[in-house]
Structure formats: structure tokens, C-alpha cells
Amino acid sequence: MGGHEKAKAKAEQAKGKLKENTGRSVGNESMAAEGRAESSQGALRDAKEKAKGSVRKVGDALKND
């Protein structure tokens, strides 16, 4: 997983969690929902990068056989 993409995914997740918690604490459900969506998007980005890394490892292993 590229360091830049990993950091981007983690930052997106953290930003989403912060927005979600802020929305809940001020009673703004719309903001909380936006935060949940951003956090989920970051988690999906993280999963995508992990999958790409796994595919690369398998490809490298097949090349070496």
C-alpha cells in the first residue's frame, strides 16, 4: 500500500469520525450523517489499497515460481 494513499485514507476516516461526533454533540443529524459517509469512504479507500497490495504480492510470487 502506498504511504500517501494510506495516510489519505486514515485522514479521511479521522475527519469523518470527528464530523460525526461533532454533529451528534450539537444535535445536527445531517452533519453526523456526512461524517459517517466520509468515514466509510475512507475505510473503503483503505480496503481498496490493501486489496491492490495483496494482488501485487500474489503477482510477484507467481513471477518468482
Give a structural overview.
This protein is mostly helical and 65 residues long. Helices cover 92% and strands 0% of the residues. It contains 2 helices and no strands. Helix 1 runs antiparallel to helix 2 (29-64). The longest helix has 36 residues, at 29-64. The radius of gyration is 16 Å and the shape is rod-shaped.
Write the layout of secondary structure elements.
Layout: H1 3-26, H2 29-64
Helix pairs in contact: 1-2
Radius of gyration: 16 Å
The number of helical elements comes to 2
> Which ranges are low-confidence, i.e. pLDDT below 50, for 5 or more consecutive residues?
none
- Give the end-to-end Cα distance, rounded to a whole number of Å: 23 Å
Number of DSSP E strands: 0
Output mean pLDDT: 92
User: How much helicity do the residues have?
Assistant: over 70%
The helix/strand order is: HH
Helices and strands: which structural class?
mainly alpha
Outline? rod-shaped
Task: Give short descriptive properties of this protein.
about 60 residues, mainly alpha
Quick overview:
This protein has two helices and no strands.
